C-alpha cells in the first residue's frame, strides 16, 4: 500500500475492504479447542446481515447501543453494523459493576445492548430498562426457567417486552446467530454506508474515570480515520505487510478500539484475539505476533520477571546478561562500540537477547506503548535487548493518538512526533493543546465541559509537556495532578511513581504530599518480595531523585485492583481514589 486510501467513514472502509479481498484472513479466535479464522468476505456477509436485522428489530439512526464484550470477532461486526445504519455504538467494559453500567446507560440514553454472553445480561437488566439485548453466545431461552431474570444476589428482574419484526413471540433478548444468518451479499448495506459523512458521530466512548465520573466522548468518523492516516505514515518505514496482531487490551478502550479494530485491519493485518490476559504469555508463544500494542504495566511486569530470573541464575549467566545489556544500551545511545564489543555482540544476541525476544513470540517487529507513561528505563531495557518499543501519547478526546516515536528514530524518553495532520502547541502554563481532524465533537450532554475542553478548535488536553528542538514531545504530568509541597516546589508524581514501579520489588505505587513538607508513598510489593526488599528498592530510587522528589516515608498497602475500584480495566491506577482510600495510612506517615 503506497498511500493510505481515503474513506468517507469507518463502515464504508470495512465493507470496502471486504469487497476488495473477500478471501483474505481477517480475524482469528480460539474456539472449540482450536484457532479458527474468519475471512473478510465472511465478515462482510455477517455484518450486513446483523445490520439488516438490528434495523428490523427497531434500532434506528441515532440510537445508542451499548456493546459489552470481550475481544472477539463479533465485536467489530457489531460496531460496523451499527455504524452502517447510523446507530451509535457505545463500547463498555465487561468489568463494569451494575452502578457503572447504570451511569453510562442512563447518561447516553441507550435503548439496547449487544453482549457477549448471558453473564452480562443480569447486570444490564439491573442497571437500566433496555428495550433489546442481543446475546452473542448462548440464547437466553436455553436457560432453565428458574435461572432466567436473576440479577446479582439472585434477585428477580422484570424484563421489559420488545416488539420484534420477526415471527417469534415477543422477547427482549435475541440470539446473535439468528441475526447473522442472512446469506445475502452485503451490497445493499455497503451502498447505504457509503453515504455517511465524516462528521457523523461514529461512536461514544466513555473515559476510564481516573479523574472523576466517566464522560462520553463523541468521536466522529473523521477523528478515527485521521488517526489511521497518521499511524500509516508513522509506521511506513517498517514496511508492514501481512502482519499478525495479538489483541488483548479491551476493545472498549479508545487505544485498542482505533488501532486493533480499524487501523491495523485496514492495512491488511490479521487480528488474533487473545484468550485473555491470564493466557497472554502462552498466546504470545503460539500466535507469534509481528506487531502489538502494550500498556506500560505489561512491560514493567515482564521486565521484573526477567530480572528476577536473571538474579537466580549462576554467576556466569548473570554476567552474560549484564554484558548484553551494556552493549545494547550503547547501541540505544548511539555510542560507538569497541572492536571487542563488535565481535562479542552477535554471540550475546544469540545467547541472551534472542531468548528474551522469544517471550514475545520471536517475530515482533514493533510494540507500540501507550495508555500511560512508560518509564524511560523500562523502555531502554527492552530496546537494549533488541525489541523496538514505540512510545506514544494520546487521549480518548483525540481519537486517541496524538503522537508516537518514529520507528527509525526512537527517543524513548519522549512520546515522539505528532501524527501527520495534527497541530500541537504548548500553552503559556505548559498545557499541551491539540488541533485537527482527530479532535472529538465534545462530551455527550456536557456543553460546559465541552466548552472548557475545546477553545477555538484547540483541545486542552490537561497534560503538561514540552517540545524539544527536533519536534519530540515530552509529557511531564497531568495539569491537575502536580503535587505542590508546602515550600512551593512542584513535583511530578507520575515521574516518581514510574521510577518506583520500575524496580523489580515494587508492583504498584502512588505518591502523595500535596501541601506537605515532603513526599510519601503507598507501595504494593511485587509478587515474592517482602517489606525489607521494598524498603531497599525505595532507597535505590531515592538516590536517582532530586532532594525535593525523594520519598521520606512509605507504607505497604493491599494491591490496587479493578475489583476494589482502584485500577481501571486498562491497568491504570486511579491515584486520587487510592489516596482517598488510604487517608488514615497517609496521615500516619506525616
List the helices and strands and how they pair.
Layout: H1 10-20, E1 25-31, E2 34-39, H2 40-56, E3 64-68, H3 74-84, E4 88-92, H4 98-108, E5 112-115, H5 121-127, E6 132-135, E7 173-175, H6 176-179, H7 187-193, E8 201-206, E9 216-220, H8 221-235, E10 244-247, H9 254-266, E11 270-273, H10 280-287, E12 291-294, H11 296-311, H12 315-332, H13 339-358, E13 366-369, H14 376-384, E14 389-394, E15 401-404, E16 417-418, E17 423-426, E18 431-435, E19 442-443, H15 447-453, E20 454-455, E21 458-467, E22 473-478, E23 483-484, E24 490-491, H16 493-501, E25 506-512, E26 519-525, H17 531-543, E27 551-556, H18 575-581, H19 583-587
Parallel strand pairs: 1-11, 3-4, 3-5, 5-6, 6-7, 10-11, 12-13, 13-14, 26-27
Antiparallel strand pairs: 1-2, 8-9, 9-19, 14-15, 15-16, 17-18, 18-21, 20-21, 21-22, 23-24, 25-26
CATH topology of the largest domain: Rossmann fold
Q: Judging from the principal axes of the Cα atoms, what is the shape?
A: globular
Count up the domains: 3
CATH architecture of the largest domain: 3-Layer(aba) Sandwich
Helix proportion? 25-40%
Through-space gap between termini: 60 Å
Name the average pLDDT. Answer: 90
SS-based structural class? Answer: alpha/beta
Cα gyration radius (Å): 25 Å
Helix count equals: 19
Beta-strand portion reads 15-25%
CATH class annotation of the largest domain: Alpha Beta
